[in-house]
Please model this.
Amino acid sequence: MIVRTRPMLLLAAYGLALLIPTTPTRADIRYTLTDLGTLGGASSSAGAINAAGQVVGVAQTASGENRAFLYDNGTMTALGPLGGGPIAVNGINNDGRIVGWSAPHWNESPNAFLYDHGTITEFDTFRAGPGGAYGINNAGRIVGGAVASGNGMEHAFVYDHDDGTVIDLGTLGGLYSYAFGINNAGVVVGIAETAIRAMHAFLYGNGVMTDLGTLGGDYSTANGVNDAGKVVGVADTADGARRAFLYDNGTMLDLGTLGGDYSDANGINAAGWVVGSARTASSAIHAFLYDGLMMIDLNDLIDSDLGWTLRDARAINDRGQIVGSGTNALGQQRAFLLTPDAAPIAAAPEPSTVVLMGGLGLTGLACRALRRRGRTPR
Model:
């Protein structure tokens, strides 16, 4: 039997096909890798990127000192005298304001700093002791952690350098807290101690700090938040594994790994794409991209002939550019910039999520969180 399809039905089907959006698939996205170089030394690492593609981080000089840098239009520039001792550069907003923490010598405590177009301001937020800055939004509000007056414990803060206003965000009932990210609506995320001495990820908005819980274990920390309020970080599972998570509207999704037993999410953009690092089946640590559907090894999305191993992705902007650190063909640790050959697309609907569950107590040293968020070249 010959079946004849009516022309109008064909036209209707064709019209419906035109209405189905065509977007790049994971296999379509490839990245161009840029080695950001150093300040004359052997190593560098990138910490953050803004919408214009300006990158900040830490690089070694020819004398082996670690210095803050700004990479812009192909040029790496040292940020004044910042560095010499411990240093981390953690954030840059779209106005080019940069934040982090530094100390002039290794035997001195670091202080938070703001670098504003050539002017460096080191600030003692609570006028009580040292601290560090970890993020800045486009309004110029800075977040971090510093010793709070009155109790000598380190608390998360929001600091507005323009008017000098400081908000102590408090804790989740314990002694410590640190803020690692802030979006343009002023929502803050980080880590705080609970009343039972567990360290949990938090979200702070409208004057309220909310415990985001864990993936069934005892520990979690939130590292980044986008303007839609989606939060990324790392949390322990019930069986003791540590996994990258994406938190949205009261649920926490385990993003999985690259075949190993560990992952950690560091940054998220407006499209909901997440970057971080994860262990592979061969126990190597590789940088990953989570595109709303699955976790992808970023090493699979660059030219393998370059000889690079991308180990840690720290941030992603809304153009899909990714920064982090890896090992080049000579075995040197270098900051990298990945530029996609296609713009990021909106994240697909999330698969089934894991409902937030509170964990039992874990007594954590909060300074470990500071060290994890403020790595310098090794």
Summary: Helices lie at 7-19, 366-373. The two ends are 74 Å apart (CA to CA). The longest helix spans residues 7-19. DSSP finds two helices and 29 strands in the chain.
